[in-house]
Design brief:
A mainly alpha, B alpha/beta, C alpha/beta, A: MetI-like fold, two-stranded antiparallel sheet, 67% helix, globular, C: alpha/beta, 2 domains
Chain lengths: 335, 440, 352
């Protein structure tokens, strides 16, 4: 069988190939409609708004997060919302609006670090555990299930407490670690379960039959097919993590006030204010929490609805039956 | 790039030396038991997917491995390919023992034996383009220098399997291709390393009729061009006849008949082979649906019947075939199913009681009837059943039936496992052809 | 339209089911998928009719369309006449009352209708009580055991769960469940495709005997021509949403009138096959099917008229019909229409 291969088989440039692949992966999002679409894009809008807030904090915010005076004048204490202080001031004469804006930074920073760490630990462990099985798998599952059995908050508090009293001290990293510990089992479990089902697929078998090494099989055949599950979970997770961080802050185990503004901490401070009819110190940080969590949840649920093939609802077009052209004829053929 | 695996000495094909030599191969799967077992990791029960198989695959031939579900044909193929670990026996490939090989050693061998699976829609990684998928074997074994060479070689093999012009297919994803096109791509991927053995596991079962012929024709043409040897695994005796030189029929992990294709079809010897051939729906209106097919279905591989595994369904079974307690259970159940609606069913059920005691496989049954019933009643019942249908093979297996004190004693003839013996051009594992087991 | 179909109705007065110009379209973001595009079919009392075609021809959709079991986004138009009523127009609640005692359905995968959490006895009790509420428990049990017994399922296993049965036995249970209500028509959609060949033979024997034992008509939907040859009285060949040929099984096999039927028969690999044969190309896109006869791009005998005008149905004798210009009507073929059609060769790129 003689075949002369073409001198240079024309190929799609590498970068463009990647773009095409990305386009295919996100096709369901672009094709979404109705509720899923509305959810997704409104969630994105809210989240992007907060991200911008965090990035532009020094520019947008009227004052610093723990600034209690300007030009030598101390701000009013517990002043209601006014032109000078749009959201009012706290008992320590700090501008609430500034604390809310800087708080965005803190929240997003901590959650981003925590998620990154959770993914880096949870996903590879899930891949390895799911693919190889055996004793390693049983051992890891036992540990992860044990951690998973505890309420997130409890784990986070314990870790935060332990780390705070140790050399690392309180702060962003501590909070991030605490949240990581709570979420690693989730990613581990989701990825592991998906790997176990993908592992049985013929194309993975085929890869082994070709002689691919396990790490090649995992990397090229398993990973991409499993990782689709992660973005919806990660975004829902981020929403949950914000709440977790706020809860830590509320209980006093989160960020130290000197290091940054934190909404949960503010809300806890505001509890005593509420008795005296002072509403602005608690309302605005609280609203910020609710809004950001809602935004992230909308993105997550929207992603789930569009990308999860089980939930995805195809758009059915409306159509009409055209009238049949003339009566169906009896033929003049042989009777 | 790594050094090439040493090729076996080139030269004239010696017909005596088979390409693959399998001897007494056993592949057993363990079944996990209940929760407590699972916690500790202890297994309970064993499925003998491949239960003592010996055969040769000669160079250049197409050997068909035919069987229904549970026959072990797929497991045999996978054991041969090293995807499943053999638990016993030996497999020699090109004269070299491969059963105990560590994965790393096996990887080099993989260049010489490849596989085509059944489901074209699931055999290709949905996340890889055709070029990446078909070219991946070359990358795994370090046989190309750069991207351009890879693409060129992939294009070449794609054209060979009929996916021409190759440029139209290189950057497509599996989802963009039809079933037949995908299967061609799978074949291309299997052949790009120029293997000597190709294991094809139901390669056309999931394709439409109008495409099957094309893929089979392709495989035949490739056999010539690449000098391939095929192991063709299927349940479809019709395509096997067309495609194979020799055929082995498997049932519950064992080979029951093996021989040249013409012999199998012209003069099938084993009752199972005969049943398979009779059951194939033929597109010939003159032929009606077969009414005399073996009853029942393939039994549970975790606890196969004693003696010959086909005996509970075999219309010609006799004394040595392995009669046991479970056959009595089946006999009574079938009788009551046939008499459904008849008041006798309830009467007889009261006499016999719970049949669970018959579920432990044994060729000697001591059966206690329920309280208030005499064993003699059960004996009379069984004698009545026998009188109604004396031709039922079950009765040939009964050596002694009597009431002994408080229970019923039912002794069957000694079960014997059949072994493959030469009969004519084929080998058959059946007592009907075994003189030493002739009824006496 | 009563006037138009009265003539047809008179010709097949004992028909259990009459399908007239049935269309089933699936909605998509664009134009709809014309899965069933004008099908007319009669099923007589106690008849076994085989509906045969390859994947994507619309046969499963037709089977479900008859019973009103269409998925979301699909709609039906036309007539499905049963007992004088048009099932297409019936509200779902009415249809549900009919389904069961009159029209039964057996699926390909036997676990689909069997609830893994319910015992077999519960399945039967539920089915019987739903449609014949005044049956006593004893009567329910008697009828269930009798039907199961006919299917070869022993009474000792009446209280077991579905997973305790093998695939073939589950299919028998499904058939028994459909038959216990004594329906007039049973639609079986690829009932044996997932089963081993010997079990398939056993189930086919059961189905072929339905008319003898139960007096039930059977619409057997399959891609396997062997099954149709052995078990069916009449057959209809479906391609791209239309029935291209229909007639008694013996006649169609002996002398196929439509080129697709002929090519399909030639492509079927059986024990007698000496030469491999296939049909080039692949079934057409049902959103935008080819103009004229839908088979013309792949038809070895295509004429020019075939790419222009849709063929008009022809009767070729008692119970035989075909949709193909090769059988006329002569008068409707334009000048030069009978010349062979010139086309490009079909390559692998268009393969199924």
């Amino acid at each position: 069988m003689t075949y002369v291969p073409p001198a240079r088989a024309p190929r799609t440039p590498h970068g463009r190939a990647r773009l095409i692949a990305l386009g295919r992966a996100t096709k369901p999002i672009r094709e979404a409609s109705g509720v899923a679409r509305a959810m997704f894009w409104s969630g994105v809008a809210i989240t992007v708004f907060f991200i911008l807030l965090a990035l532009l904090a020094p520019v947008i915010s009227p004052y610093n997060f723990n600034q209690y005076k300007a030009d030598g004048h101390r701000f009013a204490q517990l002043a209601p919302p006014s032109a000078a202080h749009v959201f009012g001031t706290t008992v320590q004469s700090v501008d609430v609006l500034s604390r809310v804006i800087y708080g965005t930074q803190t929240e997003l920073e901590v959650v981003a670090i925590a998620l990154a760490m959770s993914l880096t630990v949870g996903v590879p462990l899930g891949l390895i555990s799911g693919y190889f099985g055996g004793i390693l798998d049983r051992f890891l599952v036992l540990i992860m299930d044990a951690i998973f059995a505890f309420p997130y908050l409890l784990i986070a508090i314990v870790i935060a407490f332990v780390l705070a009293t140790s050399s690392i001290g309180g702060g962003i990293l501590t909070a991030a670690f605490a949240i990581t510990a709570a979420y690693v089992p989730l990613y581990f479990r989701v990825v592991r379960n998906h790997v176990i089902s993908v592992r049985e697929e013929p194309y993975v078998d085929a890869a082994r039959a070709l002689g691919a090494r396990p790490r090649t099989v995992i990397r090229k055949y398993v990973f991409f097919n499993v990782v689709q599950n992660v973005p919806p979970i990660a975004t829902l997770n981020a929403a949950d993590a914000i709440l977790l961080l706020a809860s830590l802050g509320f209980l006093g185990y989160g960020i130290q006030p000197s290091q940054g503004a934190e909404w949960g901490y503010d809300v806890s401070r505001a509890v005593s204010d509420a008795a005296s009819g002072i509403w602005w110190t608690g309302l605005f940080p609280g609203l910020a929490i609710v809004l950001l969590v809602t935004g992230l949840t909308l993105v997550g649920e929207g992603l789930n609805e569009t990308m999860n093939p089980v939930l995805r609802r195809r758009r059915f077009g409306r159509f009409e039956f055209e009238p049949v052209a003339g009566p169906v004829e009896e033929a003049e053929g042989a009777e | 790039m790594r050094p090439e695996v040493a090729e076996p000495a080139a030269g004239p094909q010696t017909d005596e030396e088979p390409l693959v030599s399998i001897r007494n191969l056993e592949t057993y799967y363990s079944i996990r038991g209940n929760f407590a077992d699972r916690l500790v990791g202890r297994e309970a029960g064993v499925v003998r997917a491949v239960d003592g198989v010996s055969l040769d695959i000669r160079r250049g031939e197409v050997l068909g491995l035919v069987g229904e579900s549970g026959s072990g044909k797929t497991t045999l193929g996978r054991t041969l390919l090293g995807l499943v670990r053999a638990t016993g026996g030996s497999v020699e490939f090109e004269g070299r023992e491969i059963t105990g090989l560590r994965e790393r050693r096996f990887r080099d061998l993989r260049r010489r034996m490849q596989v085509v699976f059944q489901d074209p829609h699931a055999s290709l990684n949905p996340a890889m383009t055709i070029a990446q998928a078909v070219g991946h074997p070359l990358q795994i074994h370090g046989l190309v220098h750069d991207h351009a060479e890879l693409r060129a070689r992939v294009a070449e093999i794609l054209e060979t399997v009929g996916l021409a012009p190759a440029e139209a297919y290189l950057d497509k994803y599996p989802g963009d291709l039809s079933g037949g096109q995908k299967q061609r791509a799978v074949i291309a991927r299997a052949l790009i390393l120029s293997p000597v053995l190709l294991v094809a596991d139901e390669p056309v079962s999931m394709l439409d009729m109008s495409v099957r012929a094309k893929i089979l024709e392709l495989m035949l043409a490739l056999k010539q061009d690449f000098e391939l040897t095929y192991l063709y695994i299927t349940h479809d005796l019709a395509t096997a006849r067309f495609f194979c030189d020799r055929i082995a029929i498997m049932y519950l992990g064992r080979i029951v008949e093996i021989g040249p294709a013409e012999a199998i079809y012209a003069d099938p010897k084993h009752p199972y082979t005969q049943a398979l051939l009779k059951a194939i729906p033929e597109p010939d209106p003159a032929k009606a649906v077969a009414r005399d097919l073996p009853r029942g279905e393939v039994p549970d591989a975790a606890s196969p019947p004693l003696g010959c595994p086909f005996h509970p369904r075999c219309p010609r079974a006799f004394e040595p075939c392995g009669w046991e307690s479970r056959d009595l259970h089946d006999l009574l159940e079938m009788r009551w199913a046939g008499l459904a609606g008849d008041p006798r069913v309830e009467q007889e059920q009261r006499i016999v009681g719970d049949l669970a005691a018959l579920d432990r496989p044994s060729s000697e049954v001591r059966f206690s009837p329920p309280r208030g019933r005499q064993p003699q009643e059960v004996v009379s019942l069984l004698e009545r059943v026998r009188a109604e249908d004396p031709e039922e093979p079950f009765w040939r297996g009964v050596e002694r039936l009597e009431a002994a004190g408080t229970h019923l004693a039912l002794v069957f003839h000694e079960p014997r496992e059949p072994r493959l013996e030469p009969v004519g051009d084929s080998e058959v594992a059946c007592h009907l052809y075994d003189e030493s087991a002739a009824s006496g | 339209m009563p006037g138009r179909s009265r003539r047809r109705r008179a010709l097949s007065s004992e028909a259990v089911l009459q399908v007239r110009n049935l269309r089933v379209y699936y909605g998509t973001p664009g134009a709809p998928v014309r899965a069933v595009d004008g099908v007319t079919l009669d099923i007589g009392e106690s008849e076994v009719v085989g509906l045969v075609g390859e994947s994507g021809c619309g046969k499963s959709t037709l089977g479900r369309g008859i019973l009103g079991l269409l998925p979301l986004g699909a709609r039906a138009d036309g007539e499905v006449l049963y007992g004088g009523r048009n099932l297409v127009m019936l509200p779902p609640k009415e249809l549900r009352r009919l389904a069961g005692p009159d029209l039964g359905l057996v699926f390909q995968e036997p676990m689909t209708r069997l609830n893994p959490l319910l015992r077999i006895s519960d399945h039967f009790r539920e089915t019987l009580k739903q449609h014949e509420a005044n049956l006593s428990d004893a009567e329910v049990k008697r009828r269930s055991l009798e039907t199961l017994g006919r299917m070869g399922i022993p009474p000792t296993r009446f209280n077991q769960y579905p997973h305790e049965f093998s695939g073939g036995m589950r299919q028998r249970i499904m058939i028994a469940l459909a038959l216990v209500l004594r329906p007039k028509l049973l639609v079986a959609d690829e009932p044996t495709t997932s089963l081993d060949v010997i079990v398939e033979g056993q189930i086919l024997a059961l189905l072929a005997d339905l008319k003898r034992n139960f007096g039930t008509a059977l619409l057997l939907i399959t891609h396997n021509l062997g099954i149709v040859a052995e078990a069916c009285d009449r057959m209809a060949v479906m391609y791209a949403g239309k029935i291209v040929e229909e007639g008694p099984v013996r006649e169609v096999f002996a002398e196929p009138a439509h080129p697709y039927t002929r090519e399909l028969l030639r492509s079927t690999i059986s024990l007698e096959t000496t030469e491999l044969h296939s049909i080039p190309g692949s079934p057409p896109n049902l959103i935008d099917p080819p103009p004229g006869c839908r088979f013309h791009p792949r038809c070895p005998d295509a004429m020019r008229v075939c790419s222009l005008l849709e063929p008009i149905e022809q009767r070729l004798g008692e119970g035989r019909r075909v949709q193909c210009w090769l059988h006329g009507p002569q008068a409707r073929i334009p000048a030069d229409g009978e010349l062979p059609l010139e086309r490009e060769a079909i390559g692998v790129a268009d393969e199924a």
